[in-house]
Amino acid sequence: MLTEPLHHAAVELGRRLGARVPLGLPAAAASETVARAAAVAATRIVAEAGPPRPATWWWWIGYAGAWAVACGAASSLVDRPGFPWPLAAGPAAFAVLLVVAAVLVAVVQRWLLESHGDRAASLARAVAELAARVGLLEAQRPGRAEPAFPLAVAWPRPAPQPYGVSHRGAEQLVADWMRHLGAFDAEVTRFTADGGVDVVSAHWIAQVKNLAERTAVPVAQVRELAGVAAHDGRRALFFTSGTYTAGGVAFADRAGLSLFEYHAEGGALRAANAHARVVVSEGLRPPA
Predict the structure, then answer these.
(1) Which of 55, 119, 210, 271 could form a disulfide with 277 if both were Cys (CB 3.0 to 4.6 A apart)?
(2) What is the pLDDT of residues 168-178, one digit of tens each?
(3) Based on the number of CB atoms within 10 Å of its own CB, is 286 exposed (0-12), middle (13-18) or buried (19 or more)?
(4) Whole-angstrom Cα distance, residue 244 to residue 225?
């Protein structure tokens, strides 16, 4: 349950972020764009308007004071002439108790700080969720002006397909993966005589092979896509539900192709060579 200040801050954040969403985005992309920006800002909002961090520093000041008193009392007793040394067991026992107290204080302090961190994280998630809902409504409001400082577009991760995909469905799935990775204009081609290219964007072309599990893409098909890319001028991506031969991976590494293996049922995408790992890590960035 959000407090009134946090609720107000979340609503205001959602309105601001929604107003910065670029016009014309599909609902899924607009929602993901707002949600990512809200998640980043929510932590700061909770830190400013949420519950304060527990102040435990004064515990240790009091603890240091107890040590000072104990040491002073022990010193004054020991300095007295004829001090009976068997009584030194009393100050020693008190020192042991202080050490035990320090351990207990440290444990309680850690528990309090962890509890505060968990509470702050829970509040940040609630703030982000509310801001994302408000932001999507603002992004879809009719008549909204084009933002002067638009948010960076984010495309949602493709959902798992429990029953698999057809060959055409695999092409659409790959287009969604390319949008998620940053090629927001990726589209499935409408022509059959496309040189083996199934998905295109301004800077990328992709071939899709929807194969049986553990079926390897022949190295010849990887070479063919490299030739098409060299003629086309755009970067090449290869997606398959199967695997690649060692020769295909080695050739793709030399030729600059990115090889991916998708798992439609699990909603997963795996980089099959070094170039693809860079794409997964950094996204599909336009060539410099």
Answers:
(1) 271
(2) 999 999 999 99
(3) exposed
(4) 14
